[in-house]
Amino acid sequence: MKKIKLKDIEEFVYYEKLDNGLEIVLYTKDNIYNNYVTFTTKYGSIYNEFVPSDGKDMIAVPKGIAHFLEHKVFVQKEDPQPMEFFASSGSICNAYTTFKNTTYLFYATNKLKENINYLLDYVQDLYVTDESVEAEKGIITEEIHMYEDRPNDVLFEKIRFNTLVHNPYRDSIIGTCDDINAITKEDLELCYNTFYHPSNMFIVITGNFDPEEIMSLIKENQSKKDFGEGKKVQIKEFKEPDSVFKKEEIINVNTDIPKVAYSLKIPLNNIKLSRRKLHLYIYILFTTLFDETSTFDEELKDEGIINNTLYVSLLNVDTHLIISLINETEHFEELLEKIKKRLESLDISKKDFTRKKKVLISNEIFAFESSEDVNDILLDNIVFDKKLEENPIEVIESLYYEELLDLIKKINLKNTTTIILKKEKD
Amino acid sequence: MNLETIDMGSYKLHLIKTNKFKTITIDVDFYREIRKEEIIKRNLLKMVLLNSSKDYKTERELIIESENLYDIKISSSISRIGSFSNLSFQTKFLNEKYTEEEMNKESIIFFLDLIFNPDVTDGSFNNINKQKNKLEQNIISIKDNKIKYSMLKLMEKIKDKPYSFNTFGDIEDLKKITGKNLYEYYNSVLKEDQIDIFVLGDIDKVQIKEIFREYFKITTFKKENKNLLVPELIPRKRVVRYKEYDDVNQTQLVILCSLHGLTDYERKYVVKLYNEILGGSSNSILFENVREKNSYCYYVNSTVKAYDNILIINSGVEKENIDKCIKIIRKCLVMTTQGKIKDVDISSAKETIISSIKSSFDNPMGIINRCFSSVLVGTESDEERIKKFSNISKDDLIKVSKKVKVHTIFTLEKGENDNEEN
Prior knowledge:
By secondary structure, chain A is of the alpha+beta class.
């Protein structure tokens, strides 16, 4: 077990990788009550074409399986079911699926050890029947309908759909109703066997406990199970053009104030920065351009073009970075004109840059106040950066104004998509 | 952790010293009995005060300064606690141990200045139009959230009760607000509202007390009123059902239940446990029957508002399943009155509540909320509360279940936009 000191924050993280490939990350804090445990497979909605663990050839499966599996992993052959088990000690369990990972989690103030053992056991055992797969389809269909009735969710779905062409980030995590109806028990088992091997998984525990004790508990649990040799899953490669799928679309939805997104699809092949640094620079640049501290925001509010500050969303889809500027306003046409004009010449003053760095450092310390936030940060490190960040503050301190100016020269803003959601005129 | 309450005459200052956090959190609560036409003013006030001040005339200048102060977080909110409306201002900033000396004081003064030093000329707020437009947009946007919107529509049907008022207020009332009458209202809030202030963190109590004595400029004495209980609804012989139609994919179902004759003990303890068992989690009776056994929905929840004397059940379902779903929910309610509640579910729900009491101590606002609620309704110590929850019997639950009556049902369904009642 490796003990890692996070510099400047004065906190410790413990790390170990077991023989079966499972990675364990522990973070402890005295005088708190709650423990937060996440068990994650690096398998999310974007992996639909791959070589299965027991095969040699590339296959394609219906979309939405990662999320469907998340629902079915929760079902155990024998009672108690996970919900009941965790509830019996007052713990709360849940799960979620993203593009790149599926995470099973619980919060507990007591019976931490029993709960960890149970979490490992239920996630590492799949029980599905044809009947239970069919029954789940009704529930997931209702989940899809729920999202369809939320204009903001529709907007975010459309951003990816219209900016991307082949990239699997394009499709919705949950899948469409047609995708869901095509899924079979065999599909679920195949994906489970391929992606739920311990070598593709990790556990992060943040809370108040003895790290040595918890580490040996997990080791013992894993030593009793045989998962066979883990091999790296081969995923189908794709080529994503720099151009967007659709430059502009107006969608009629049931909303009283039009929503608008202006998205930039920025190629990453000429940018040689780490993912984290790139995101930090882009955050600094775009908040300075558009947030409450910008003259852009002040002018547009004075002119009555917007009432709320623009929301800046960043999505890294591996090949490209999609930056979206989002707002709701009756005057979306004027807003779009103003945005385009503002983006014609990107600039930032040294003073603004320095202030935003201070903001980032402060927020890093704010995050270490909550063990949930810490868990998220560590999880993010492993899924996206494939290693723990031992010096989170230093990463921010080593951002340089000149490097950002250099980045500004390299970023290509030519490929854009506009999406407008509004009520159909009678 | 220790709590010290200081009576400052016109307000109470509660100091909570703890070294658990790297931040200092302050919560200033202004509350009074709710009046429908004032809700909009309180909402606008919370926005106007945080948007500019005498020293920082524009939002831009203000936010730049807050970033310079190590990104001090400042927010305001309006909430309803029974028959009170609470206008709350909050700040959270890094303890000066992590920044620079004297930053604690500087941060608190910056925060209090927003409340006491607004941008005013000749007894009138300057530039309130932008905030008025923003508030109007917020009110219109509620409709994008079909769950919230449906709850609101159902509540509107229950006239005169505080929970029937839109939490943002009415757009019609908004039009009448001017810089002048808003400033008058602001002064009445400072003079007449009851005030409690909570300061939490690794603080120097003497210093904090001095800062507030000097910078929290209110000296009027207030009459104490802690009667926040909302009167019960009159039970209905026949449940009323309202249907509204709109362009939606999923039908929203909201059921309002009235609570009758709860004792103080039942209100503080038993009804909370009852709600947890009925629909408080994914291990609940409703979740089990509506979702797991019948696949009718993705979510089904119940929420109890003990001081409003109501309980609300909501779900999102296919249109053709709506009547079947209502039937199952009503069956679940009957089951509880017949004592068909598993002992294991009772003990699980108890553990969940106890766990949430404990974990609320892991975050600053969790602790402050606990302290505030004990100021308002005088709850027992946490040890005492945990003991009381643990000792609730099945008979207690059955007794409470008989005090829950379905009162009104609302559905938002796909179809042409007109409404009906039957």
